[in-house]
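dumping this here so i dont lose it
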């Protein structure tokens, strides 16, 4: 493991996350992937353990820990299952963290407390069928009607939407100006009339996570449930994605470490040409390179997490961590399958699932190309 000055509390939590991942999540990960369905007993246990409120203050019902501890959780859970970790990530980094930063005290009590204490799960509706990386291409609208806003449109790839209670959704309140000035954010209860969650989208990876298209048909939302001020939605969304990238970087590190660990275990036992696969220098050298790159990605991820904990400007660091970690994770997962040969390609072994899961880390919460845009924009301004 990488040497890093974790506190005793952080080490204790890291061990708790690791034990839960190995003892609980690992046992159902393959079944969840096959069924394309999240195990809600696992969700219930994580709620009970406080996993859905790690970086939020205990005053609002959270665990009172920091972003680095949250990154440790993301890594350990991701070592065994990316579907479970992305469920935690979207709830924490995108939905609840946005409320923590931009809500009024009254809104925090109403919306954040049940998310932080785990009694409710949140999701984040930003991406639209024709507006992915180009967030400004969104067309979902929210028109003022007295003390309400009426939302119409559709959001796609809304993770957690199948079982989420709280929907953070972004819509245009002023179509006469560019989206970055005319977009606003709203907190919507799942049971609001007109909110319709479609069946989960069939996907290559993270198949157990709930990820669906959500329709908003004349959804009436009280003006008091607007998050932030009118026209600040784009800012809120971008801030959420900055923080979310730390979670995805940690997820990438976890997937990569889990794949490499599994491949090493297999290759120590598997013999070819009269000796273990690990006895071949090509295997030894590539595994050493893989571990070095995972360690580098982990340090970049922890650096970004600590910067956020210290209330520093972390957007460049988060983009950098996600770019590097996602690239490394995709490389390592391909290598893991190759180390194991035909068996690596079979569903009997977990590296096949990890290879399918890992690709999304280069896409969601900002593609790798967008990460380069964020970084170069900061470097060259």
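and the seq i came up w/
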């Amino acid at each position: 493991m990488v040497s890093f000055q974790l506190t005793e509390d952080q080490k204790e939590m890291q061990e708790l996350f690791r034990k839960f991942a190995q003892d609980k999540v690992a046992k159902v990960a393959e079944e969840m992937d096959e069924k394309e369905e999240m195990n809600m007993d696992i969700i219930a246990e994580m709620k009970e353990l406080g996993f859905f409120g790690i970086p939020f203050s205990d005053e609002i019902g959270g665990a009172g820990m920091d972003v680095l501890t949250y990154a440790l959780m993301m890594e350990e859970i991701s070592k065994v299952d990316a579907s479970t970790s992305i469920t935690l990530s979207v709830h924490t980094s995108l939905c609840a963290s946005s409320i923590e930063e931009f809500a009024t005290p009254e809104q925090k009590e109403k919306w954040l407390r049940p998310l932080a204490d785990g009694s409710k799960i949140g999701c984040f509706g930003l991406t639209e069928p024709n507006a992915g990386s180009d967030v400004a291409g969104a067309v979902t609208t929210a028109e003022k009607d007295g003390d309400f806003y009426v939302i119409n449109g559709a959001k796609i790839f809304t993770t957690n939407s199948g079982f989420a209670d709280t929907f953070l959704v972004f819509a245009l309140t002023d179509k006469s100006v560019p989206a970055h000035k005319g977009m606003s954010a709203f907190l919507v209860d799942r049971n609001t009339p007109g909110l319709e969650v479609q069946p989960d989208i069939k996907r290559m990876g993270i198949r157990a996570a709930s990820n669906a298209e959500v329709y908003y048909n004349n959804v009436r939302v009280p003006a008091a449930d607007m998050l932030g001020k009118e026209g600040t939605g784009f800012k809120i969304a971008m801030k959420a994605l900055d923080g979310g990238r730390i979670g995805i970087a940690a997820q990438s590190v976890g997937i990569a470490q889990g794949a490499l660990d599994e491949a090493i275990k297999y290759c120590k036992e598997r013999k070819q040409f009269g000796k273990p696969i690990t006895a071949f220098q090509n295997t030894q050298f590539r595994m050493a390179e893989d571990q070095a790159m995972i360690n580098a990605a982990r340090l970049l991820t922890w650096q970004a997490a600590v910067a956020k904990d210290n209330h520093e400007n972390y957007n460049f660091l988060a983009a950098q961590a996600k770019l590097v970690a996602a690239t490394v994770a995709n490389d390592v997962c391909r290598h893991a399958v190759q180390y194991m040969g035909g068996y690596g390609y079979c569903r009997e072994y977990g590296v096949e699932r990890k290879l399918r899961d890992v690709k999304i880390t280069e896409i969601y919460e900002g593609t790798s190309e967008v990460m380069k845009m964020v970084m170069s924009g900061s470097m060259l301004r």
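Strands lie at 122-125, 141-145, 148-159, 166-172, 183-189, 195-200, 211-222, 226-227, 271-272, 275-276.
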